[in-house]
Amino acid sequence: MARPHNAIKHLVATGTAPKVVISGTTAFALSVLQGVLALGVSSLSWLKGGGGGLLSISEDPRVNELLASLLQRNQVTILDNYEIESLVVSPRTGALESLQCLKADESQPTKTLVPCDVLLCCDQDDPDVDAFRAINDCGLVYDGRLVVNARFQTTDPFIYTGGSLCRFSRRFQSSLYQQFYSAVECGELLAASLLQVIDPVLSTSRPADGNDDAAAAAKKQLPPKFTMAKVTHSACMNGFHFVNINLPDMPLSLKSLTTESGDGTSYCCLQFDDFGTLARLTYLGSQAVEVTNLQCVVGLHEAYLNCALSSFHQNLISDWITFFRQPWANAVYHDRFQDFRLRLNAALKYDEGIRMLVEQVKRQAADSGDVKEAMALAQTQTGRGGSALVPTTKKMIELNLLDYLSAHRDVLNMYFLPQAQGHAAKKE
């Protein structure tokens, strides 16, 4: 973006009113729109291709309405369902003058000439020509992205790679481009795969040595299962921020719970699946939010989130962002909270009270065939904050929680810990 930025800045500084067109319906396009407006451009058009709307930015209709209002407020011309057919350049200078566009959603497509001095393409995050040429010249397979196997190896077994540049083989139909997964998780899985090769303690075979057996094993191995939430964060017009955090495998059935300020400067939507797990968080507002913290809550059951569902239905939550900034959430944001969850789940497997509850819920699901009814029964038998659990189960959960808070007392010092064991931790 350095060269387009300097070119637009130069045109504005010389008194020329450049006609800028931004093409694409990605979240990155929102940031580019904001950047161009910040340079003082008054003639700005947003060209959106076939499909229309802002669906590739957000699936939330309310977010689309708020974005449309921001665009109108900034006098951005929206060209819906337009496809660029050709570029019109000056025969004398070779400079771009306009775009020959085709209206895509009409029975009789019509051609339109859109004045344009600067065209910014933000549709797809593809590798540039030099990167593609380097990949192709090395004999590596490129199929929309650089193809890797389940161990993150390219067709050259000595080259490992991962991230938005890569994809898994088409043999694995359920695997998406890696750009749709968490970059952090891609890096962790790539490092773990490489460690199996270079660490003599962990390595039982050397998949990178090019032998036929290792290559055959790598082909049969399924890609890893991604679980970390994918984060999209863009700066928008008028100082607004757009944040979308979702799990890589989104369930079909979702329950949406939203909060919105009266002036429309803060909107947040949480979507839970039938089991009560938070699958997606969407935010659009004028206030910057703690994205790293919010990423921690996506993928957790609502019971870990201070009984988010029952709290919302009891009108105890007026703003989700404020709710997640309360002191109770600090324990959830700690980097050892996942370890605490694993230990607690392992302990609950051998608890008689939990075993009886699980069996009861399974019978309900088998008899009715309705997951929602079974989960409603589970919530009733558990109670808010575990209040309906048998005393021995509550005692075991409390002891595990106290151990977790005590072990990280240097950071989680906002909680009051009783001196005698057996008392629940209280918040200040």
TrEMBL record:
Task: Tell me the SUPFAM superfamilies matching this sequence.
Answer: FAD/NAD(P)-binding domain
InterPro entries noted in UniProt: CFAP61, CFAP61_dimer, FAD/NAD-bd_sf
Gene3D superfamilies noted in UniProt: FAD/NAD(P)-binding domain (3.50.50.60)
One of the Pfam families matching this protein, by short name: CFAP61_dimer
Q: Which residues are in the CFAP61 dimerisation domain?
A: 224-331
Q: What is this protein called?
A: CFAP61 dimerisation domain-containing protein
Q: Which organism is it from?
A: Aphanomyces euteiches
